[in-house]
Specification:
The protein is of the alpha/beta class and about 220 residues long. The protein has helices at about 1-15, 35-45, 75-85, 100-105, 120-130, 145-155, 165-175, 210-220, and strands at about 25-30, 50, 65, 110-115, 140, 160-165, 180-185, 205.
Length: about 220
């Protein structure tokens, strides 16, 4: 019964996104795609006397006390992460070129922002998107993004494109919505060497101007 109610809520949320059944659909992540999440999280941690060392493609294993060689306990790192979404997530910088590219893509496609973030982040995330010229319909979620992307793609007869930094989300979309064009984008240059990729399954493009052109070609097909 709980699952049925959850499905109904999701369907209702999708109904309200205004997806045009006659246009292509573009589904885009926020953190490390539209926004420089790691840089913002690092500044937030510095304000708490901690260090964020970009040593791997991870969150909690990169948080240290100054001078220490062992990262913070995962549970403590998660508390700072939750606090960041309460108090600091509105301060991250937009990814270079993202707003311009999305504005051009929105002229030919329905754009939906699909972000895995805590529920308390909804208002600050929506305000952040609006402040940076990224005021498109927002869906907050958790877990694999494939099922939701598939549900949204089913609302249009046009092609669908999906952009995310995480290989797990790209693989999830490949499973649930295999017809969708999938693009991996990692905005923070420090993270790019550490980001797991699978170029044989998903196109990796870390420059938004180049990504714009690739998405345009994919949704025109």
């Amino acid at each position: 019964m709980l699952q049925d109610r959850t499905t109904a809520v999701r369907q209702g949320e999708i109904d309200g996104l205004g997806i045009d059944p006659h246009r292509p659909l573009l589904v885009v992540d926020v953190d490390e795609v539209l926004g420089l999440f790691m840089a913002g999280f690092g500044s937030f941690l510095e304000g708490r006397g901690l260090e964020f060392r970009v040593e791997r493609f991870a969150l909690f294993q990169n948080i240290y006390r100054p001078g220490e060689a062992q990262h913070l306990e995962i549970a403590e790192g998660k508390r700072h992460f939750d606090d960041f979404f309460r108090y600091g997530a509105g301060d991250i910088e937009p990814s270079p070129g993202a707003a311009k590219a999305l504005r051009a893509l929105a002229a030919r496609a329905s754009v939906v922002i699909l972000s895995n973030a805590p529920a308390q982040a909804r208002l600050s995330r929506a305000r952040w998107l609006g402040r940076h010229g990224l005021d498109y319909p927002l869906v907050l979620s958790s877990g694999p993004k494939g099922p939701l992307t598939a549900a949204m793609a089913a609302r249009t007869a046009g092609p669908t494109a999906f952009v995310d930094d995480l290989l797990s989300n790209l693989d999830s979309v490949a499973e649930s919505a295999p017809a969708a064009a999938r693009f991996q984008h990692v905005a923070d240059a420090r993270l790019r060497p550490f980001a797991p990729s699978a170029p044989e399954r998903h196109t990796r493009i870390d420059d938004w101007a180049e990504l714009h052109d690739a998405i345009t070609a994919a949704i025109a097909a």
